[in-house]
């Protein structure tokens, strides 16, 4: 069933019909398609292009289609080219001939553009809400576990940090992600309805009216851009990719920390799986899947960037390829935020193991050098003195604080009894953390 048969003499090939159809995926847009049409029809009546009577009949028809779909009475399937054809043909079935007036002063080009803007805006707001939830979970996890642990650079033990500091780094990352989404929404919040195919319309329509009805900030400035702009999807996909990159880094740490080698955390049974052959195994599959799905979301971004790069103005059918990657990416991101949130909420932090891990690895070497600097030595010389002490400690299999004062003095006269307090791990962390947050 088509909206455009009039100009053709013979039928479209079945192969082409299948190739062209987007209904199987753009059915997700049914809600936005209906509210967009309702705003459009109300505007047509306000501008005396349709009568109030006609507009009411069409709006009632669209509302009854909406409830039939929601109640499962009307299935979005069949021989339709896309969700827009499905709606128009079903409207005509519901309200009769007057339904044929719905598409006055509109093209599917501005129709699909308004549908996607609305859909992606609502979904981006949903992602922001979910980020808020996980930010709350991270804060609780950090506050309940201010235990000291080794901090790493190059995956080598570096300086003492707290678990709270470590996990709150992800709080900062996800807070930036929220800002990125908020800014993308701010930029995209323009109404393309009324651009029509590419050149506007000869009818005296009112774009401000549909803009208010659909709660956009303003109408788009340029019609040709309005129907062929997909920047907003690319911005959202970039923000989604960065969220996934952050989750992938966190997943990697959860996987590493739950190994017997680290043994810093335990991922709950709910988010672990077993092995079909090795009875002892507890595998961190949830974290691995999040890390794996990151590639998929990057792929969605690359797919649309590549689709868009060679398209001349204005609408071209290539743009139908924006939908599946966007739907896939947003569904994946939402699922991953929910899983990560639950996984963090049920995570067991092995505080003693984290605390004990601090004792080996010279995590107070920098502070030992700072001690000498406070006593008057230049930092570069202090660095070298402590480097020599570390060589000795490695030979004796001792920590710096396990050398007695005579041993320390053999490296520098500046060492006094107060060095032990200065390089104590708890003291170093409380001095360092003071300036954070
Ligand atoms: N299914 C199409 C899409 O997603 C709708 C717009 C069709 N426009 C057209 N001129 N054929 O892009």
TrEMBL record:
Instruction: State what protein this is by name.
Output: Argininosuccinate lyase
The keyword Lyase is annotated on this UniProt entry? yes
Please name the GO terms of the biological process aspect recorded for this protein, alphabetically.
L-arginine biosynthetic process via ornithine
Q: Where is the Argininosuccinate lyase C-terminal domain?
A: 362-429
Superkingdom is Bacteria
Entry's Gene Ontology cellular component terms? cytosol
Q: Give the Fumarate lyase N-terminal domain ranges.
A: 6-299
| UniProt-listed Gene3D superfamilies | Fumarase/aspartase (C-terminal domain), Fumarase/aspartase (Central domain), Fumarase/aspartase (N-terminal domain)
Q: Which UniProt keywords apply?
A: Amino-acid biosynthesis, Arginine biosynthesis, Cytoplasm, Lyase
Pathway annotation: Amino-acid biosynthesis; L-arginine biosynthesis; L-arginine from L-ornithine and carbamoyl phosphate: step 3/3
Catalytic class of the enzyme: lyase
Q: Where in the cell is it found?
A: Cytoplasm
Query: What catalytic activity is recorded?
Result: 2-(N(omega)-L-arginino)succinate = fumarate + L-arginine
| Similarity remark | Belongs to the lyase 1 family. Argininosuccinate lyase subfamily.
Q: Is this entry keyworded NADP? A: no
Tell me which InterPro entries the record gives. Answer: Arg_succ_lyase_C, Argininosuccinate_lyase, Fumarase/histidase_N, Fumarate_lyase_CS, Fumarate_lyase_fam, Fumarate_lyase_N, L-Aspartase-like
Note the Pfam families from the entry: ASL_C2, Lyase_1
**For this protein, what is the EC number?**
4.3.2.1
Q: Which GO terms describe its molecular function?
A: argininosuccinate lyase activity
Its main subcellular localisation, reduced to a broad class, is: cytoplasm
